[in-house]
Amino acid sequence: MAPNATGWWEQRLDWVMFAAVLLTIPAFYLELAGPEPIWQRAGTALYVVVFLTFASYLAWLWRRVGNNRAFFARHWLDVVIATGAALSLTGSYGNWPSAEWILRLGFVAVVLARILLSLRILFSPHGIVYVLALGAATLGFAGAGFYWLEPTVHSYADGLWLAFVSGATVGYGDFVPTTPASRMFAVFMVLLGYAVLSMVTATIAAIFIGEDEKAMRRELHGDIKKLREEVAALRDELRGDRHRPPRSR
Predict the structure, then answer these.
(1) How far from the centroid of its chain's Cα atoms is residue 88's Cα?
(2) What percentage of the chain reaches a pLDDT higher than 90?
(3) Which of 10, 63, 223, 246 is 20 to 30 A from 233 in CA distance terms?
(4) Domain spans in the chain, listed from the N-terminal domain onward
(5) DSSP letters of 25-75?
(6) What value does the mean pLDDT take over residues 131-160?
């Protein structure tokens, strides 16, 4: 397959990888949900899907690109995610030692970086609709997550409120995470929520800056047009003076 064709498929498959990396979020919290086998099996199944998706994607790219440093420099996040998903299959459920907590939190940081990398296309004035939809979806899922994980939250509305104050880093104190699972979810929400809010404000700012730039371009174009007209008029006047007979003394 030609290199340009590989790049085309890589761009299309990036959204598949984005959907796959999102599965690590519920998988992480399903393992914290409790000792019930159904949650453990669900989390394990999600990690299996993530591993198989990223492993297949990397194997396909490896065959097209080859073994070189540029491959690892460009796709090291995907390699780490595939490795982390595989290692998560061998860990315990919920009762993690300190070393495993550190490794899993590092894995969460890599997942966040991969998510933001996939969303880099939305950093444009034309992506405002998608950014707002992403923010609404993030808030909706986070509200459901707090409603599920936090025992002091007794309604979905309260879960939405806790998700909003966590993502906006406000923290009024009327609702606070009290369990390890909900606290970990709050950490994730603060990081992801801050990133999404930054994307929303940056996109809105880009819209206003873009409008100002358009107005400046129009004004500059008008000034250049007037300047050209004046230069053309001066040239015509000089040509007329050149062909005009000299005055007699």
Answers:
(1) 23
(2) 7
(3) 246
(4) 1-118, 122-249
(5) HHHHHHTTS-S-HHHHHHHHHHHHHHHHHHHHHHHHHHHHH-SSHHHHHHH
(6) 85
248 SS3 class: coil
- For 41-58, b where at least 16 C-beta lie within 10 A, e where not — what string? ebbbebbbebbebbbebb
> 170 by DSSP, 3-state: which?
coil
Task: Decide if 144 contacts 158 (C-beta within 8 A).
Answer: no
Q: Which two tokens stand for residue 221?
A: 């174009």
DSSP 33: S
The answer to whether 29 and 145 have CB atoms below 8 angstroms apart is yes
Q: Which of 57-71, 101-115, 147-161 has the least mean pLDDT?
A: 57-71
Angle at 207 between CA 203 and CA 208, to 5 degrees: 120
Q: Are 94 and 32 in contact (CB under 8 A)?
A: yes
Model confidence, pTM:
0.63
Instruction: Report the sign of the C-alpha dihedral through residues 16, 46, 156, 173, in that order.
Output: negative
- Residue 156: pLDDT over 70: yes
At residue 5, the pLDDT reads 52
The lowest-confidence range among 47-56, 67-76, 111-120, 131-140 is 67-76
Question: Which position has the token pair 């315990």?
Answer: 92
The residue to which tokens 């409603």 are assigned: 147
DSSP 8-state class, residue 67: S
**CATH domain 122-249 topology:** Helix Hairpins (1.10.287)
CA-only gyration radius of the chain, Å: 28
Q: Could you tell me which of 184, 162, 179 has the C-alpha nearest to residue 171?
A: 162
